[in-house]
Write a structure and sequence with these properties.
The chain has 17 helices and 21 strands. By secondary structure, it is of the alpha/beta class. The strands form five sheets. Strands 6-19-18-15-13-11-10-9 form an eight-stranded parallel beta sheet. Strand 9, helix 4 and strand 10 form a beta-alpha-beta unit. The longest helix has 22 residues.
């Protein structure tokens, strides 16, 4: 398809890079056709392993090492608040969600859980990056829309890193440069792609194909089209800077033919993730995908099923980073405080399943069984004391007691009410492990103000 159909590239420098490498460009249609030799050479320099760092030196994601990491949902435009009311998201919500993801132990990556609607668009991305560094120790997202805003996001992150060279040596922001399905690299996201490649920041290229809408209705056909969109993006990044850290990526789903809307909680999404993971391994690239979304409007039975099945499928497929794993309702249009807390437990259960069963002489416990005999118990055994904490996952939100104890819970018999209360308690009590250096804080705030004045 690269040679016969091609891909439309709407960013001039990207098209020029491809042409210089040996591709052909139809200037009337902006369609670039890429020979196999050019494609293979371009993507061959994409590294199979690299790291994304948190600001404290402890939290990091090692891509390509075979470990699954789980992220909160990214950039919904509204929130279901602690009172259960859905409303436009604010800067305070962004701060709250960064603090919650920092506190919740099974969420590995702090995405922009919501998009603040009460600040100008020109500084919204910078506000998110600032809040992420200020209120979370975990790895976080950057920004890839338009050359100047993307450069500004690098400048802001470089303040934390100690300079652009230091940021390149120790990447701290994860970029997202989404192709536009079908078969298009837009001007703005591709500008951002090139900036992040040259700045040495890991970048994802996730198409959001809708099977039957913006891609073939068949999963196999979707995977073919998606593969073209991803690899074309990787090729541009590698031509901009050889060795730029790049992730094979996807956030594709099904189109519900009854409504025309995307179904990210559909079981087929798990199959798309599995197929994409196999392709990523074929190209020796780490992968970012999605799992944990739901079309449900509230945290209910539907949301639990869709979240758990898609997240588990993504995890079992071996994705390096599973985006949207926590906090999503309404196809990621809404972020939910309660569901973020509940999904933290789903993340914990998925991680426990992925950890599997450790089989050693110690864990087989033959001598322990023999010593206990036919009428013995194991509760007081030293072997039980050694293993029960790490062998069994204990959820913080899900009920495991008796009915009589549950009846005594009052309003907290409702798990969503309980989760909202826990979220509020975390926000009251949680303190970040290493506060942002006050001098760095001031420089970041001053930089954002200077951008706002120029906008």
């Amino acid at each position: 398809m690269f040679e016969s159909t091609g891909i439309r590239v709407l960013e001039r420098e990207a098209a020029s890079l491809l042409v210089s490498a040996g591709a052909s460009l139809d200037k009337k249609t902006s369609i670039v056709k890429i020979p196999e030799r050019v494609l293979r050479d371009s993507i061959s320099s994409a590294p199979s392993k690299f790291k994304l760092h948190g600001r404290d030196g402890k939290h990091e994601i090692a891509f390509g090492e075979g470990k699954v990491h789980l992220s909160s949902v990214g950039t919904p435009v509204q929130v279901e608040g602690l009172d259960g009311v859905v409303r436009p998201s604010t800067v305070k919500d962004s701060e709250n969600f960064f603090r919650l993801t920092d506190a919740l132990p099974h969420i590995d990556h702090s995405s922009w859980v919501c998009w603040p609607r009460d600040v100008p668009e020109s500084v919204g991305p910078l506000q998110e990056i600032y809040l992420g560094f200020k209120h979370s120790m975990k790895t976080m997202d950057g920004w890839n829309w338009g050359k100047t805003p993307t450069e500004q996001s690098i400048d802001l992150a470089a303040i934390v890193a100690g300079g652009r060279d230091e940021l390149a040596a120790r990447p701290m922001v994860l970029g997202f440069a989404n192709p536009v399905s079908p078969l298009t690299l837009s001007k703005e996201t591709t500008e951002g792609l090139i900036v992040y490649a040259r700045a040495g920041q890991p970048t994802c290229y996730p198409p959001e194909c809708m099977a039957g809408g913006t891609s073939p209705a068949t999963i196999a056909g979707l995977l073919v089209q998606q593969n073209v969109e991803v690899l074309a993006s990787v090729a541009v990044a590698q031509l901009a800077k050889r060795g730029a850290p790049s992730l094979y990526s996807t956030v594709s789903g099904m189109m519900d033919m009854r409504t025309g809307s995307i179904a990210l909680g559909a079981p087929e999404v798990g199959l798309i993730m599995a197929g994409a993971a196999q392709l990523a391994r074929h190209y020796r690239m780490p992968i970012r995908g999605t799992g944990g979304n739901t079309e449900a409007m509230i945290a209910d039975y539907q949301s639990g099923v869709e979240t758990a099945t898609t997240m588990l499928m993504a995890g079992m497929a071996g994705l390096d980073l599973v985006y949207d794993a926590a906090g999503s309702i309404e196809s990621s249009l809404t972020a939910s405080y309660a569901k973020l807390v509940l999904d933290n437990d789903v993340c914990g259960e998925v991680k426990r399943i992925l950890a599997g069963v450790d089989v050693t002489e110690e864990t087989l416990a033959v001598d322990v069984i023999a010593a206990a005999g036919m009428s013995g118990g194991f509760l007081s055994s030293p072997h039980t004391l050694r293993h029960f904490r790490k062998e069994g996952y204990v959820p913080s939100s899900f009920w495991r007691g008796s009915r009589s104890a549950w009846d005594s819970q009052g309003a907290e018999k409702d798990i969503v009410v309980k989760a909202r209360k826990r979220a509020a308690q975390i926000l009251k009590d949680h303190r970040i492990e290493v506060p942002l250096d006050p001098a760095v804080d001031r420089k970041m705030v001053e930089y954002i103000k200077s951008v706002a004045k120029r906008s």
